[in-house]
Each structure stands twice: as C-alpha cells, then as structure tokens.
Amino acid sequence: MSDLATHNIMYLQGVGPKRAETLKKELRIVSYEDLLYHFPYKYVDRSRFYTIGEITGDMPYIQLKGQVTSLKTVGEGRGKRMVGTFNDGTGIIELVWFKGIKYIKGQIKPDETYILFGKPSRFNNTINVVHPELEKEPNGKGSFIAGLQPFYNTTEKMKSSYLTSRAIFKLVQNVFQSYTSVIPETLPAHITGQLKLMKLNQALRTIHMPPNSEELQKASFRLKFEELFYIQLNILRLRNQRTYNLKGHIFSRVGDFFNQFYSQNLPFELTNAQKRVIKEIRKDMGSGHQMNRLLQGDVGSGKTLVALMVMLIAIDNKYQTCLMAPTEILATQHFETISEMLKGIDVNIGLLTGSTKKAARNQLHADLQSGKLNILIGTHALIEDNVQFNNLGLVVIDEQHRFGVAQRARLWKKNLSPPHVLVMTATPIPRTLAMTTYGDLDVSIIDELPPGRKPIQTSHVYHKKRLGVNKFVKEQIEAGRQVYAVYPLIEESEKMDFKNLTDGYEYIQEVYPNYNVSMVHGKMKPAEKDAAMQEFASGKSQILVSTTVIEVGVNVPNASVMIIESAERFGLSQLHQLRGRVGRGADQSYCILMTGYKLSNETRKRMEIMTQTNDGFEIAEADMKLRGPGDLEGTQQSGLPFELKIANLGKDSRILHMARNVAQDVLKNDPLLEKQDNAILKRQLKRLAQQKMNWAMIS
Ligand SMILES: Nc1ncnc2c1ncn2[C@@H]1O[C@H](COP(=O)(O)OP(=O)(O)OP(=O)(O)O)[C@@H](O)[C@H]1O
User: Fold this and answer.
1) Residue 131, φ and ψ in degrees, nearest 5
2) Where do runs of H (alpha helix) occur along 97-212?
3) Any residues with CB less than 8 A from the CB of 481 and at least 6 apart, and which?
4) Three-class SS of residue 306?
5) May I ask the CATH class of domain 457-613?
C-alpha cells in the first residue's frame, strides 16, 4: 500500500497545515496510511435505543430519541450552567451544560426530534446527562453514525487545533472517499487463504466503520495477526541469519575444571531442571553456532550455579569468560561466592568494578590480555574500551535489562568471532512478552527450586498493626534468624525517600535496642556499602535496613523475614524480587507487606496476588494484565521491536502463538524469503523497518 503512504495528510480534505502539524506531533500521523492505522480503541453500539424508564445511574452510555422540552440558564459566575429537560414520550430526564451555553442554546430547536447520546448519572434522585451529544434525527444524510461507533485517541484538548474522536473519524471517512482504489494486500495469498483472513482492504474499512460486531471481530483478528506475524517473522529471520552466518567457538569437551568442581566442590545434587538446562547450553556451545541464550529462573532457583558450571566448560576449552552484574554489590557478591565455590580449583578470578584502584586495574588488564586470568567478574566496567581479553569465549550477563542491547553489542567487538552469550534473568517474563522482546534469543527455563525450600508466607499488614509485626520480628531474631526492612526509593523524590529510610533506621534502632542494625542505600560509597552488607551477611547485624539496592541477587540464606515498607509503591515484579531475598535457606520465611489503609483497587489486587502465590511467572502474567506490557518493569529499555497498534500481548496470546507458528512454517520452507510467493513478505519487512527508522528520526 505504498501509495497511501505517499499521500500527505496535510492535503486531505479537512486537514490543512495547522492540523497536519498537530496530527504529526501528537499522533504520529503524516500520511493517509498512518491515519488508517490509527485504530479506534473502543466502539459503542449505537444501534440500541433505550427508553427513559430503562435507565439506571450506572450505565456507561445511553441513546434516546425525543425532544428537548425546556432550556434555562441557572446560577452565576463559576456555578453558571444551562439545564434542560428531555422527553422521549415515556418520561423525562435532565440535561446539563457547563460550557458552550450560548452556542448550544442557539442550536437546539423545540419541535425537533433529536437523538441523544451520553453517560447518565443520578443526581438528587433524578437522572441527568452532562454535556450530551444531540443530533437531529437523520434524514438519510448527515453525520449521525448508526451501529458501532468508533472512538479514537484524540489530540490534546488545549490546542486550538484540537481534534475530537468524531473529527478523526470524519478524516478517516474523507480518506476512503478520496482514495477509492483497492488497498493492496500486505500478506501473501497462501497465508490469507490458509487462515481465511479478511483482506486488508476490507479489514481497514471494517475496523473504522464496522457494519456489525462479527465483521469487526474478523477485521480486528486479521490486523492483529498481521501485526504480530511481522514481528515474529522479523525476529525469527534475524535468528536464522545469526545461526547461518555467525560462526561460534566450539566447546567440544567437558574437562577437568568442570569435573573436579562437579565431583568435589558441589555440596548438593543439581536439580533436574539445572541438569536439563546445562545440557541445553552445552549442546548450543558445541554446535558451531554462536549461542545467544536467555536463562530464566525464579529467584533462588540456582541460575548462578548453572552459569558458573558453564563458565568452567569454557575454561576447559581454553577460553576466557566473564560475568557482568548490574551493580557493584552484586558483582562483589558473585566474586566472593564464586571464589569460595572454586576453592582448590586452579582458576584465576578477577573482580573489576568502577571502584577498582588503578594499580589493581592495570594488573587485571595485563592478566586478561596475557590470558592468565580465566574469569573476570564485574559491572559494566568490563566493557570499557581498554579492557582487552586474550580469547573471550563466553559472556554471562546477569539481569540484562539493566545493560541494554547496545552495551551487549559492544562485547561482540572485543573479539573477531563473537563469544557465546548467556543472559540470566530472575525477572520472570510472561511467555508472550518473551516471544516478542527476547524472541531472538533461545530460552532455557529453570522451573524447579532446590529441594527443601519452604514456600514463603506472605501477609499484607496495615501500618496500624505495626506492633504485632515488631513482636514477630523479635521472635524470629531470638530464634537466630535475620531480617530485611526495605524502603522505597524513587528517583524523583529521592530526598523524601532518604528521609523514609533514615527515619526507619532510627525507629528500628529504638524498637530493637538489643540488636545490631545495618543500613545500605545507593548513595553510600561502595566500600561503605560493602562493609554494611558484609556485617549483615556474616551475621554481625540482625537487621538490614535498605533501599531496593538489595533487589536482585543478594544471598543471605539465614535471613528469613522481609518487611517491605510502603509496599503500595512497588510494582508486582519488584515486590516478588524483593521477597526472593528470603526463603533461600531451609527455614520457614516470611514476607510482610506494610501499607496504609487508603489503597486503590489496583494496589489491593497487587497485595492480594502477592499473598496468594509465590510463582514468579504467575505474578508476571498478572502484572502484565494489571498494567499492560509497556509498563512491565525492566522491559521499557529493551523495548518491543515495534510499537503495537492493535494487538495486546496480555490478551492476544492465542493470536501471537498462531502468528509465531505461521512465521516458523514460512521460514522453514523459505529461510531467506526468496520464493516468489513470499516476495510480499520481504518487501513488507523492509517497509516496516524503514518506517521504524523514520519515526526514530522524527521523534
Ligand atoms: N541444586 C541445588 N540444591 C541446593 N541448593 C542449591 C542448588 N542450586 C543452588 N543452590 C543454592 O541456592 C541458593 C540460590 O542459588 P543461586 O544464587 O544460584 O540462585 P539464582 O537463581 O542465581 O538466584 P537469584 O536470581 O535470586 O540471584 C544458593 O545458596 C545456592 O548455593
């Protein structure tokens, strides 16, 4: 449909330069095509007429036919309004206008029959409609829309060139009036035929002007399918290209380092899930292709251990390996646990973070370059330009959201042939989202916790019941356990949060005078942070007061209570991450979510979900349903490859699976899309990529 794309919206009847500018700035509409792809977000059935007797105060909208029987202006100044009565022959309701009084008064005629549309509400025992839409009964022509009326996202109301939903609909109609040719198809016939999809030409007309809900359903299905299909096709094609083009290092053997660790140093049995995942990774790394794998597993499922064993395989094959963590605390902790676990095994491990001193840093650089260092652990300091590996074979990235794709790519450049990449994430990503955001990565899932873990008991407690919590905490500490108390930290109001944290610290010191309390927050110097963490990890302090710096990966198995203050300020995934800091040992653990009484429904729901399940995937799905995929923590940075215009990852998973299967089939038969039948696919992918680039340049 290239030619719709070349029609400038400015020249459409009813637009002009000013509106064109508004459309471009606010809705990203510059061409006829953009306008047709600005889909309605809802429809209202205007084929249904009510009678006044049927109306209740809580209906979303009503439609009546009748006359305006009186109109008068009442009140003064800011309270001034116009009140009318509307009679449909079965009763009377009240109409109210606060704005545009003069204009409306001039428009309304007493004997005319009107169609009234609006939201009813009950006020002083009468039903009224504020700012109703009134239209003359149609006489064949006119702008009245019968049937399903589309509603569009509109432009900002304050602007002089404000476009209402109705105005946008009018413009859409104008496009269809001036563009009478058939809109060319964007899916090949073998796909539309196989799935009995509505043709694009019809689907676009139907989505804006649906004759009935069945047709609307078909049009919406076709457009959603197409949107998800091209995303999948694009991702799978990239993956194919990688598999065909990028040669990977071949790790053909498992040698002494791995075996020694497995037989001597590993203090427990691997879970079946860990074994399976290690097998999957080994197979990948031995295949001759470059591995790009996402290792997903709930908090505490033993991902780091898997990563370590895979790193040993790299070393067995004479390669260096590195592990990147998102924070210094985590990098240091990884360094310590890994050094501990590899005790007695002859590997050299280094730690490189922003606070590594110059002399130590130089030494690390030299040892890396000479190949003496086998494992380098660190923060993003690892990808600075002067860090040169001798032969980097495997990169493990912990919590990739914080790194971003561009940073990942910098690692490639460090080697002529790219290292294998294993990305670990504890943020459970709903399947549907993983298929779109991480679709170019293979996925391994650890879906089993080490044996003996008891499910964490979670409760939601109001501030007023704090004394009970204090008592419980004391009992736990007396029983030898340790406690986290976490306070929110939100960037915009750091000052206030800091106050929360220090107040909390003082309060806790007062309540528990006999215990040692440590505190960590993001503004501390790394050495201070480490010292405080160390105090807690070694058991010197019983309580750790902290901000969310402890959110990922901190591992103190003896800690059994997690108190989250102002829990309403955290998203579900973050709450789950925080909760994952306890329940890492054999003791029964508890998570207490503290909030005030005044909570929105959504927050209440969040607290309820947390108290009901410990399953990270269930929580992630619920999070996506509550907040929509765009908001999902940690995913904003990675971003969807395309902005979704019509499909919804929370609701359309069935269509997504179908789209993925079809894309897979297509590529199986024609990996490079060279067949004549698929020419349209190749063209369309190119067009979508171009479109994305254009928008990136404009915005
Ligand atoms: N198979 C196992 N049996 C018993 N304990 C295990 C097993 N695997 C790992 N562990 C232990 O469980 C704890 C959590 O493991 P690890 O840190 O590897 O998990 P993780 O998935 O990386 O956690 P997180 O995402 O929270 O950082 C560690 O103390 C580890 O030693």
Assistant:
1) 45, 60
2) 101-107, 165-178, 189-195, 200-208
3) 558, 559, 560, 561, 587
4) helix
5) alpha beta
Question: pLDDT tens digits, residue range 537-551?
Answer: 889 999 999 887 765
Residue whose CA is at the smallest distance from ligand 1 atom 19: 302
Asked whether the domain spanning 457-613 has the same topology as the one spanning 256-446, the reply is yes
User: Domain-by-domain residue ranges, the chain?
Assistant: 47-144, 256-446, 457-613
Angle at 61 between CA 60 and CA 65, to 5 degrees: 160
CATH of 256-446, one of 3.40.50.300, 1.10.10.10, 3.40.140.80, 3.30.1330.40: 3.40.50.300
- Mutation choice for ligand 1 from 277, 429, 555, CB with most ligand atoms inside 8 A: 555
DSSP state, residue 57: T
Q: Give domain 47-144's CATH number out of 3.40.50.2300, 2.30.40.10, 3.30.1330.10, 2.40.50.140.
A: 2.40.50.140
Quote the CA–CA distance of 606 and 567 in Å, as a whole number. Answer: 10
Pairing of strands 126-130, 120-123: antiparallel
> What distance in Å separates the CA atoms of residue 303 and residue 618, rounded to the nearest whole number?
19
> Contact, 245 vs 387, CB < 8 A?
no
Q: What is the pTM of this model?
A: 0.65
The structure tokens listed for 368 are 């890396």
The DSSP element (H or E) to which 460 belongs, if any, is strand 457-462
The label of the residue with tokens 């476009």 reads 163
Q: What angle do the packed helices 616-627 and 601-612 form, to 10 degrees? A: 170
Orientation angle between helical segments 526-537 and 328-341, nearest 10 degrees: 50
* Tens digits of residue pLDDT in 43-102: 888 878 899 988 877 787 888 999 999 999 998 887 889 999 999 999 999 999 988 788
Query: Which atom number of ligand 1 is nearest to the Cα of residue 297?
Result: 21
Instruction: Calculate how far, in angstroms, residue 302's C-alpha sits from the geometric centre of ligand 1.
Output: 3
The owner of tokens 């016939």 is 189
Instruction: Measure the CA dihedral 160/165/166/170, to 10°.
Output: 90
Whose CA is closest to atom 25 on ligand 1?
299
